[in-house]
């Protein structure tokens, strides 16, 4: 049994995905997800809408595909795990947040259709074993912003797991 908290969420993207790259060249994308729930109050018989907001982060090739495919307002499915990050602000305040680290992201087809296009293997990818070169930033592409309040803490990339996802180690 694993210690990870797996989650599957369906909701609307609250902002366009933001694609950045770590100093080592790995793609990292973040976007917000709003999950709506409608329930009936048993006492008053009134319908109440509840919204939960989640920050989603994706790495590597998945991050690049999400940045190219998802827009604000799109209804998407996210499957991943919960992860808590902690950091200290420049003012010395300690902060933490729980975010969803995505393993899979896709469009919801409940009220829409989608056309799937298989990507050609990116440089360094191929027979399963792509290395960091597969996740390097393209020339002239976006760069990592070191001044953001909530820094990404990604210290090592160990290739791909059996599903083709990047293995991440946090120090």
Strand order of the largest sheet: 1-3-4-6-5
**Number of DSSP strands?**
8
**Kindly, what is the distance between the CA atoms of the first and last residues, rounded to a whole number of angstroms?**
23 Å
Quick one: biggest sheet?
5 strands, mixed, barrel
Figure out the total of helices.
1
Compute the gyration radius: what is it? 18 Å
Derived structural class: mainly beta
How confident overall, as mean pLDDT? 77
Compressed to H and E, one letter per element, the order equals EEEEHEEEE
Strand content: 35-45%
Q: What proportion of the residues is helical, as a percent range?
A: under 10%
Give the low-confidence spans.
124-163, 167-171
Shape: globular
